[in-house]
Amino acid sequence: MPGLKLTPGSAYDFLSVSVDEWINNSVPIDISLFSYSTRVIQLVDQLYKDFWYEDYVESELEDKIFGLPKSKKRQIIHKDTIIMVLMNLYHKYCISGHSGSIAISRNNNNWKKNRYNPTGTTISQIKRVLDCLMWNNLMLQHMGKVGDIGGKVTRICASPELIELFSTHDITEDVIHLHQENEVIELSTKVPMEDNHWRTRNKKRILLEYNDNGFTTQAREQVIRHINHLKQFDIQCSSYSIFTKVDTYRVKRVFNTRNDFSLGGRIYAGFWQNIPSDHRNNITINGASVVELDFINCQLKITYALEGIFYKEDGYILEGYEDPVGRSILKKILLMCLNTPSKNSARQAAQSWINECKKKDEEIYNYYKANKIRIGKLIDQFAEKHADISGYFFKEHGLKIMRIDSDICMSIVQMFIDANKPILTVHDSFIVKEEDEDLLKESMKSEFEKATSIKIDDIHMLVKKE
To answer: Where would I find the H helices in 307-397?
Structure first.
């Protein structure tokens, strides 16, 4: 029986959007998603028996009996791979129904057996699972090719038949887990995208292998402790419900480029980091309202602290650009001065961002055009305004600062874990229950002073109390 193959121009009644939207509204497959629920295991056992056992297990036994060479033998489908694929399909369905898809690369290099692949899944395993699901009408699939919308990437989503099967086996969002061997300490770098024109300079992030040492072992233990702590709490958002329970404790720490882990290290966590800031005002923890506090001018403040200076002004303001939109543009430009290797690259990066805003943020782009902003001139003005730290400009200093602010963040998290109180992080800002506001303020001040030897007294409240 042929499966549900999707090609641009075709349609199925259960799709709530156009095929193009379905393809574009995709997220990469998450190989950390898993399940240890007996309900899921029973479902997989049933699927394995119905669809895979005769085709693969018995075939391999026959191959051994008839003495076929190893290269000719069929591989057994690992149940861990089936569970991982099913949990991705179900997680995506919980979040967006049939209006989105999961993107799966067919590049062998993206399926290496390493610390970031907890199930040891290979591309051949993935293909076998997808083929079987599709041919039994349990999955919708679009196999991209060069020139297609979205490129040479397979997109999939659960079919109504699979959703019904989930329902029959009482599969609910609480059975979606993270694999126990999920790596929470990532080392990454950015490389040019394949077939990328030199003028666009688009890059993709790739994960790097590394050898564990005392620091990575300790950092991993800290993150796992943070994950287990978050699992205790009911975290909700009344104005944003596109997440599941597992999205409230998906925490990792990401370092950049160097094997000595001296760059980056920021925490990337749950759904609250990926929603508009005004929605965070509607977060509750165990039903309680929250406050969000952040360090004002965090990267600037730490950079000045390295020079022994307590900087208290708004460092992102220049004369004539005091309004919120102007400030947001200037903040972006100044941070690029701290995160790029040269003045020219800072200017190019800022210009590329402005050009992207033409499609993604018209308010920013229209402001830029209306005020005839000259990026190079603003960079010179910032160098003059921040003469005390201008020596840090154009030296990719930002990732070093992120390492410092990420250590401050982890120290604050640890204080709340020790006090058995919930805390959510958004890089250099923190969300806690209203009743814990004073504890957060004191923690932020004390940990900043420990890291920089500078006392601060300006903590900014982002989420206002009603």
So the answer is: 324-339, 343-360, 362-370, 375-385
What b/e string do you get for 178-214 counting C-beta neighbours within 10 Å, with b at 16 or more? bbeebbbbbbeeeeeeeeeeeeeeeeeeebeebeeee
Cite the beta strand spans of 150-243 per DSSP E: 153-158, 177-178, 185-192, 203-207, 235-237
Would you put residue 183 in left (φ > 0), alpha (ψ -120 to 50) or beta?
beta
Query: Per the structure block, which two tokens stand in for 185?
Result: 């300490």
119 and 81 in contact (C-beta within 8 Å)? yes
Of 264, 226, 228, 239, which is closest to residue 430 (Cα–Cα)?
226
pLDDT-based confidence at 49, cuts 50/70/90?
confident
Using alpha carbons, select from 341, 253, 311, 255 the residue that is nearest to residue 452: 311
Q: How far apart are CA 130 and CA 139, in angstroms?
A: 8
The one-letter amino acid code at 1 reads: M
The residue that leads in pLDDT, 69 or 179, is: 179
Give the residue ranges of DSSP H helices in 199-322: 214-230, 298-306
Residue 253's identity, in one-letter code, is: R
Amino acid letter, residue 414: Q
Model-level pTM? 0.86
Given a contact cutoff of 8 angstroms between Cβ atoms, the answer to whether 381 and 333 are in contact is no
CB atoms within 10 A of CB 231: 11
* Residue 153, both tokens: 């990437």
**Residue found under tokens 């394995």:** 48
428-461 per-position pLDDT tens digit:
899 999 999 999 999 999 999 999 998 888 777 7
User: Cβ neighbours of residue 172 under 8 Å, at least 6 residues apart?
Assistant: none
